[in-house]
C-alpha cells in the first residue's frame, strides 16, 4: 500500500476528508437556501412595485380617471375597466390551450413511443426550435399569412354555425378576431407543452410498459393503462406552463387583434375583446402619470391571475405525486 493511500485511510486523513465534505455541504446548502430566498425576494419586490405604482389609480375617483385619461371609458370604475380585459385575457388563453394541449400530447406520444429514433430526434429538435421563435415573428406570420388562410373557414363557421353564440357573425374580414389570435397562441405554446410532456412520457417506468405488453396489451392499451396515468400530473403541469405563456403574450395579440372592451363570447366579430398585456403595450407610450398607474393596476391584475394559475399547477402536480405513492 502506497504512502498516499495510507495517509488517506489514516484517522487524521479521514477526519480531514470529513471536515472538507461537511464544509462543502454546508456551503452548498447555504447557497441553495440563498437562491430560494432570492426568488421570494424578487417576487415580493415585483408585487410591492405593482401595488405602489398602481395605488394612485386604485384610490382615484372614477370621474377623475375618465377626465384625465383619454382612453378610459366614462362612468366606469377601475374594476369595471379591468374586468373586460381580464375576461379577454382568460378567454384567448383558454381557447389556445384547448387547441394546443391535445395536439401537444399526440406529438409527444408519437415522438416518445411511435417514431423511429432518427425521426424522433429530428422532431424533438424541431419542437425545440419552434419554442425559440420570437413572438413578434408569430405575430407577423399570423396577420400576413394565417389570417387570410383562415378567412374562408371563419366565414363557413359563421354561415353554418352562426346559431351558436360563439360563432355568430358576420365574420370580420380580414379576420382580426380573437379566434385567429387563439390559433396563433396555440401554435406558440404548442412546442412548450410538447417538450415538457415528451420528457414526462420518457420517464415512464420501463417495467410498467413491458408488463402491460406481456399481458397482451396493444401499444395503445399500454399507453392508456401505463403511460398516461403516470404522466397525468406532468401533462397538467405542462398545460399550465403553456397557459401562463398565453396569458402574458403581448406582441402577437397586439398585431393581430382588433380590440374592444366588452364581455363578449363572439369569436368571429372584431372589436369585441382585448387582453391586459396588449392593452398595456398599446396605451403605455402616450399615457400620462395617472394613465401609467392605471395600466400598472391592470398589470397587477395580470400578475394575480398568473400567480393563481401557477399555484393551481403546483397543487395539481402535488396531488398527482401523492396519488402516485
Automatic annotation (TrEMBL):
The chain crosses the membrane at residues 84-111, 123-151, 177-197, 246-265, 295-317. This is Phosphate transport system permease protein. It is found in: Cell membrane. Keywords: Cell membrane, Membrane, Phosphate transport, Transmembrane, Transmembrane helix, Transport. NCBIfam families: phosphate_pstC. Residues 86-313 form the ABC transmembrane type-1 domain. Belongs to the binding-protein-dependent transport system permease family. CysTW subfamily. Part of the binding-protein-dependent transport system for phosphate; probably responsible for the translocation of the substrate across the membrane. It comes from the Bacteria. InterPro entries: MetI-like, MetI-like_sf, Phosphate_PstC, Phosphate_Transport_Permease. The keyword Transmembrane helix applies. It comes from Cellulomonas chengniuliangii. Signal peptide: none annotated. It is a multi-pass membrane protein. It holds the Pfam family BPD_transp_1.
Amino acid at each position: 500500500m502506497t504512502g498516499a493511500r495510507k495517509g488517506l485511510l489514516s484517522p487524521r486523513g479521514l477526519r480531514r476528508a470529513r471536515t472538507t465534505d461537511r464544509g462543502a455541504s454546508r456551503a452548498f446548502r447555504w447557497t441553495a437556501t440563498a437562491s430560494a430566498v432570492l426568488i421570494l425576494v424578487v417576487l415580493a419586490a415585483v408585487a410591492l412595485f405593482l401595488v405602489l405604482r398602481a395605488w394612485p389609480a386604485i384610490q382615484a375617483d372614477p370621474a377623475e380617471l375618465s377626465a384625465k385619461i383619454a382612453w378610459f371609458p366614462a362612468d366606469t370604475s377601475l374594476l369595471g375597466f379591468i374586468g373586460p380585459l381580464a375576461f379577454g385575457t382568460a378567454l384567448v388563453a383558454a381557447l389556445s390551450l384547448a387547441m394546443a394541449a391535445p395536439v401537444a400530447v399526440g406529438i409527444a406520444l408519437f415522438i416518445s413511443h411511435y417514431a423511429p429514433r432518427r425521426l424522433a430526434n429530428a422532431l424533438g429538435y424541431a419542437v425545440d426550435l419552434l419554442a425559440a421563435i420570437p413572438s413578434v415573428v408569430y405575430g407577423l406570420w399570423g396577420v400576413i399569412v394565417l389570417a387570410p388562410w383562415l378567412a374562408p373557414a371563419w366565414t363557413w363557421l359563421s354561415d353554418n354555425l352562426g346559431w351558436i353564440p360563439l360563432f355568430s357573425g358576420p365574420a370580420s374580414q380580414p379576420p382580426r378576431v380573437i379566434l385567429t389570435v387563439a390559433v396563433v397562441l396555440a401554435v406558440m405554446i404548442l412546442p412548450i407543452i410538447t417538450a415538457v410532456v415528451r420528457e414526462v412520457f420518457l420517464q415512464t417506468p420501463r417495467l410498467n410498459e413491458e408488463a402491460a405488453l406481456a399481458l397482451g396489451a396493444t401499444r395503445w392499451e399500454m399507453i392508456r393503462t401505463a403511460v398516461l396515468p403516470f404522466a397525468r400530473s406532468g401533462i397538467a403541469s405542462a398545460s399550465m406552463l403553456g397557459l401562463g405563456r398565453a396569458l402574458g403574450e403581448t406582441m402577437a395579440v397586439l398585431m393581430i387583434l382588433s380590440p374592444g372592451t366588452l364581455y363578449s363570447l363572439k369569436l368571429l366579430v372584431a372589436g369585441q375583446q382585448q387582453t391586459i398585456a396588449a392593452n398595456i403595450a398599446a396605451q403605455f407610450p402616450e399615457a400620462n402619470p395617472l394613465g401609467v398607474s392605471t395600466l400598472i393596476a391592470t398589470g397587477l391584475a395580470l400578475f394575480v391571475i398568473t400567480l393563481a394559475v401557477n399555484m393551481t399547477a403546483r397543487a395539481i402536480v402535488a396531488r398527482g405525486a401523492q396519488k402516485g405513492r
